[in-house]
Design brief:
The chain has one domain. The longest helix has 55 residues. It is mostly helical.
Length: 272
């Protein structure tokens, strides 16, 4: 579980809830018509903008924002260096038993291709395309939340206009002015809250998750190519340390290598 995401959501809504309670009644801020206008309008607009299966898939995507990465860049460098040491001492075929113990699917597949004797350039091409496609898929998930964050305030404004129109029609009946005004004001409030506390923050967190996974895979692929070519473990470490922050902070952006080896694009180049 990523504590930053949970703490951020709990802190934001708790503090706003506390302010609401101090200034009035919570029920005054609950309005079903306003909720239906904002949520229904946002979801409907998102369905028009994106395919149905992609929108419905956000429920499986959003969990990535709450899952913290457990493996750091430095740990991956250490794993690759140990594999390189065994490969230099006993040959690539000696890595067969160790590859089965690798939990990361991308790492395991890349290493298996190297053990099978596939040309490094071919490995780079196949796995590089997988990095690009995965990045694009993750980018689409973040774009859906960005789309919802864009539409939510607009739906809130539409709700405000609807409430104002209803209020004008109810000028001769003072009892109906209050509910119409509540719809007008709360629609804008709901749209702003959803956009700035849910949709845009989740889109940003998903983009970070995608970027970090792309960088880790780029580094892994660079290391696998180095292992397949028989590089010394210390040389491999020096090549990959460019990806690692000096203090090995998982949330810090590591440097990007100056050039890729045997590939037509830069490591860490934007994949989505």
């Amino acid at each position: 579980m990523d504590p930053a995401t949970v703490i951020g959501i709990v802190a934001a809504f708790s503090l706003m809830g506390f302010a609401i309670v101090q200034g009035g009644e919570v029920q005054s801020f609950l309005n079903l018509p306003a909720i239906l206008i904002v949520l229904g309008g946002t979801f409907g607009a998102c369905l028009i903008h994106h395919p149905l299966h992609k929108v419905l898939g956000i429920f499986s995507i959003v969990k990535k924002a709450f899952v913290a990465h457990t493996e750091s860049y430095a740990e991956r460098v250490g794993d690759l260096a140990r594999l390189a040491e065994v490969a230099r001492r006993e040959g690539l075929l000696a890595l067969g038993g160790k590859v089965d113990q690798i939990s990361d699917t991308f790492f395991r597949r890349s290493m298996q291709m190297a053990i099978d004797g596939i040309d490094p350039a071919e490995i780079a091409g196949v796995m590089g395309r997988e990095i690009a496609v995965t990045g694009e898929r993750h980018r689409l998930g973040a774009d859906i939340f960005s789309t919802m964050g864009t539409f939510a305030p607009a739906m809130g404004m539409i709700g405000t206009l609807i409430g104002l129109v209803n209020m004008l029609h109810a000028l001769d009946n003072p009892a109906n002015i209050g509910p119409a005004m509540a719809v007008a004001l709360l629609s804008t409030l709901y749209g702003a809250l959803l956009s700035n506390l849910i949709f845009f923050p989740l889109a940003g967190k998903l983009r970070y998750r995608s970027w970090r996974e792309t960088m880790l895979r780029e580094m892994t692929l660079e290391g696998v190519l180095s292992v397949s070519e028989g590089d010394h473990p210390s040389v491999l470490e020096q090549k990959l340390l460019a990806f690692v922050h000096p203090q090995d902070e998982p949330g810090a952006r590591p440097a990007t290598p100056r050039k890729a080896r045997r590939r037509g694009r830069q490591p860490g180049a934007k994949a989505g």
